[in-house]
Amino acid sequence: MIKVIKMISKGKFGKYGGIFVPELLIPALEELEIAFLKYKDDDKFNEELDYYLKEFAGRPTSLYLARNLSNKLGCKIYLKREDMLHTGAHKINNTLGQGLLAKYMGKKRLIAETGAGQHGIATAVVGALLEIPTEVYMGSEDVERQKLNVFRMELSDAHVLPVYTGSCTLKDAINQAFRDWISNLDTTHYLIGSTMGPHPYPTMVKHFQSIIGRETKEQIMEKEDELPDTIIACVGGGSNSIGIFSGFIDNKEVDLIGVEGGGEGLDSGKTGATLSIGTQGVLHGSFSYVLQDYDGQISEAHSVSAGLDYPGVGPEHSYLKDTERAKYVAINNQEALRGFKLLSQYEGIIPALESAHAIAYAEKYAQINENKGKTIVVNLSGRGDKDMFLAAQKMGLKL
Amino acid sequence: MNNHLSSENQKEMNNHPSSENQKERDYNQSSASTGIENNLDIESYQEMFRRVKKQGEGAFIPFIVAGDPDFETSLEIVRKFTENGADALEIGFAFSDPVADGPTVQEADTRALKTGMTTKSGFEFIKKIREFTSIPIGILVYYNLIYKMGIDEFYKNAAESGVNGILSADLPPEEAEPAVASARKYQIDQIFMVAQTTSNERLQVINKLCSGFLYVVAVMGVTGARSKLKQSTVKLVERVNGHSDLPIAVGFGISKPEHVKEVVDAGSDGAIVASALLNIISDNLQDKELMLARIAEFSKELKNATKRR
Ligand SMILES: Cc1ncc(COP(=O)(O)O)c(C=O)c1O
Prior knowledge:
The complex is a heterodimer of chains A (399) and B (309).
Chain A: E1 12-13, E2 16-17, H1 26-39, H2 43-57, E3 63-65, H3 67-73, E4 76-81, H4 91-104, E5 109-114, H5 118-130, E6 134-139, H6 140-145, H7 147-155, E7 159-163, H8 170-183, E8 188-190, H9 201-224, E9 230-235, H10 239-245, E10 255-263, H11 274-277, E11 279-283, E12 286-290, H12 315-322, E13 326-332, H13 333-347, H14 353-367, E14 375-380, H15 388-394
Parallel strand pairs in A: 4-14, 5-6, 5-8, 6-7, 9-10, 9-14, 10-13
Antiparallel strand pairs in A: 1-2, 3-4, 11-12
Chain B: H1 7-15, H2 22-30, H3 45-54, E1 59-65, H4 71-83, E2 89-92, H5 103-114, H6 119-130, E3 137-141, H7 143-149, H8 151-161, E4 165-168, H9 177-185, E5 189-191, E6 193-194, H10 200-209, E7 214-217, H11 231-243, E8 248-251, H12 257-265, E9 270-273, H13 275-283, H14 288-304
Parallel strand pairs in B: 1-2, 1-9, 2-3, 3-4, 4-5, 6-7, 7-8, 8-9
Helix pairs in contact in B: 4-14, 6-8, 7-8, 8-9, 13-14
Bound molecules: pyridoxal-5'-phosphate.
């Protein structure tokens, strides 16, 4: 066995995960692992993080019984309201955690990647909060498509750097962020936005998102005095889903379902459903399922929701899939838009298009006879404000 | 949290087959690099470095992405390299997401992929090169291409095409066990990178695992032409030499004859030049004759700079 010199782990989930990075990055990953392991159990760090999660981000989020939708679907449907958080999505749980860690590590600069801009905004506000200069890489295509979010990031004093290489989208923004990090290791923390990337990122991001699962468990026990039958969450890189799953992975009786962005359909060639149709490979530092061609060239992903538009997926999900602890399904663009309207109409809650995938699957799931009457928790990872223009356009309206 | 090499790790490393003494490895290597059924008399890295050293030179190792800007032109460029002093060749296999590379190499990758280059045609490219040269050929490839073909299959193909060494930019020693096993099986040199950030401890482990030569990353960054070499590069060359018994070649940012001279003078056994050559390609896409003439001329200058005086 070739041993890692300093890291205590390569962060493997079964055979998935790992540290497939250029040699230059190894010491940075070591440094990060050391810092993460040190501070994750540090009282002062946790006190400060808890303070920000509560007072800045708005935790705890409620576990809301969606009564109208429940009546319609014949199940008891709870929504974990991550959409109520500051900046509008669960992403802030992770950016506060990593931002604070970067501060404790003495880093002078944050960099991040973003697709639609959700993670970019969550990083930008944390940069402003903690007074750490922040730069966000964003594919030039996305910069064009998401001007509003670019403006929001810049208002929080983050600098948005358009990426013109490759497909000019999220995966290229990630490549560019890695290149920046390689060139600025001493000063810079790369704040990855999901449970992907090399170790320790998948484990670290899970740690910071696991608050979703802990709260949900406590809340459901309080309300129902028993565990839910099913948890449903959308899967892009996999952070909101791992966050909520983590509270229930050991409770085998709870079914865990991850919903991927099916795009225009699984066999359309335009999909983001990595776990559904991907194959094993290495992308962005870890071994996982990947959308790729015969030779291993990475494909472009497609989904109506930018947050699910990624050709990779966090390695722990690959492990949960193979071990059948979680099940993964895909919801296509059309169905997601239906979920988007459904929740808005029945509950007065406009979900993010990502979260609308989870809603759409909950509807499908509830329609299966054997699922009638089940208690289901849907992780409502974000709110739909960011998607107004796109949703209107898809509905044939012009705002 | 144990942030030092534990004694257990140490023991395991010492038991690792890679810790056979260097002589034995050299012996393996020199009988090695001929590939499976390749009857060509291919020079090994060891022989090549010995040859240039004897001549009082460092090795000039140019890089190109296979199929950039197209298969035929790419091959003509390699021919210019070999006619103008290349001592070994680094051939890149194009990848969609080259995280260790700057824009110059990525653009070359993109050009090659656009012409339809595949892993298979990459090996075809090497076979064509082998028709006119016996100098060592290394390939530079992102791990996903190796994994996707099947690790064993990839190394087998490499050996059959006449490849001497394989360097995977995103495969650190910690993840390299299956690749190293296949490399040994097909007698390919597995080459690793070391950088400023690589500790001496780590350097020694890498030195044991690596064969052929050590690739010393000159800069804290990605590939790309640079106007100046840092003093730290010279220090790094000296440090690596102090902890390794393998030949070393410096790459990343070596863009001018002066840089080549500097690293060779600092004690590097070779210099790898990539982006500066690729820039000649991208600057002359409309005029192939000029492109080839410039490549030839620049190669000659770079080779000349390896000559210790
Ligand atoms: C609201 C929302 N949900 C989900 C995702 C998908 O990411 P992950 O799978 O990491 O939760 C995103 C990503 O941008 C998002 O903004």
